[in-house]
Amino acid sequence: MAQKKIVTQIKLQVQAGKATPAPPVGPALGQHGLNIMEFCKQFNERTKNDVGIKIPVVITAYSDRSFTFITKSPPAPLLIKKELGLEAAAATPGKTIVGKIKRSQLEKIAEIKKEDLNCYDTAAAVRILAGSCRSMGIEVED
């Protein structure tokens, strides 16, 4: 079987379970001649359990106008805000503290993000997430 030729990769962040042909999905897929409704149907089916969360997706477009896509874990700041029940991060991190997060909570988020983070173990993942917390104005408790 001959390998399909990859034309491009499209990276988007789409609301889980709520992909529509409206921007950003429609224009991004339309310019490569991909079936927008087919993508929306497959994406919504795959992400129906995470409704309300923005999910990063990487769509690989092939020369025969077919496509495949992989979904990644939600962005770390989104998971941190959800864990703490925050609406927004601090406007002036370093000066304002909007919340405190326990190491056990960071470990829980690290398990979700582990595949997409650039590290080998949970301890390194927790350190990366702790840095994200500090830049959001969230104090990390040991």
Outline of this structure?
By secondary structure, the protein is of the alpha+beta class. It is built from 5 helices and 5 strands.
Number of β-strand runs: 5
> Which structural class should the secondary elements be placed in?
alpha+beta
Largest sheet strand order: 1-2-3
Here the CATH topology of the largest domain equals Ribosomal protein L11, N-terminal domain
C-alpha-based Rg, rounded: 18 Å
Q: How many independent structural domains? A: 2
% residues in beta strands:
15-25%
> Any low-confidence stretches, pLDDT <50, length ≥5?
none
Number of helices: 5
Ordered list of secondary-structure elements with their pairings:
Layout lengths: L5 E10 L9 H6 L5 H11 L7 E9 L4 E5 L4 H9 L14 E4 H11 L8 H14 L2 E4 L1
Parallel strand pairs: 4-5
Antiparallel strand pairs: 1-2, 2-3
Q: Can you tell me about this structure?
A:
The chain has five helices and five strands. The protein is of the alpha+beta class and 142 residues long. The protein folds into two domains: 6-71, 2-Layer Sandwich (Ribosomal protein L11, N-terminal domain), CATH 3.30.1550; 76-140, Ribosomal protein L11/L12, C-terminal domain (Arc Repressor Mutant, subunit A, Orthogonal Bundle), CATH 1.10.10.250. The strands form two sheets. The protein has a three-stranded antiparallel sheet. Strands 4-5 form a two-stranded parallel ribbon. A hairpin with a 4-residue loop joins strand 2 and strand 3 (67-71). The radius of gyration is 18 Å and the shape is elongated. Residues 72-140 form the Large ribosomal subunit protein uL11 C-terminal domain. InterPro entries: Ribosomal_uL11 (IPR000911), Ribosomal_uL11_bac-typ (IPR006519), Ribosomal_uL11_C (IPR020783), Ribosomal_uL11_C_sf (IPR036769), Ribosomal_uL11_CS (IPR020785), Ribosomal_uL11_N (IPR020784), Ribosomal_uL11_N_sf (IPR036796). One of its GO terms (molecular function) is large ribosomal subunit rRNA binding. Belongs to the universal ribosomal protein uL11 family.
